[in-house]
Write a structure and sequence with these properties.
Transposase_11, alpha+beta, flat, 105 residues, 22% strand, 3 helices
Length: 105
């Protein structure tokens, strides 16, 4: 199931386009929805991040991070109340941010 979900995420294909090597798309989608509702990814991610940092000989918790942002144009279907204007980028839309540690996690 995990491989099938990762395939959809990495390739960007529709659920219905899962190759025949994977279980039926309905089954994979069912698990994906249930795991998202249970916030499985949010529970697993800190554990995996900690293990990777320890494998790299680092402390389990990061002590430094990198912050970046990106302005994304808002589609006409996005409500005006949830959009803003980034004067520096001259973009009417939303601004998204990402924080990574020095390992890129």
């Amino acid at each position: 199931m995990v491989d099938a979900i990762l395939y959809v995420v990495q390739t960007g294909c529709a659920w219905r386009q899962l190759p025949a090597d994977f279980p039926p798309w309905q089954t994979v989608y069912w698990y994906f929805i249930r795991w998202e509702q249970a916030k499985v990814t949010e529970k697993i991610l800190p554990v995996v991040r900690e293990q990777l940092r320890l494998q790299e000989g680092r402390n389990p918790g990061p002590s430094a991070g990198l912050i970046d942002s990106q302005s994304v144009k808002g589609a006409d279907t996005v409500g005006r109340e949830s959009r803003g204007y980034d004067a520096g980028e001259k973009v009417n839309g939303r601004k998204r941010f990402i924080v990574t540690d020095t390992l890129g996690l």
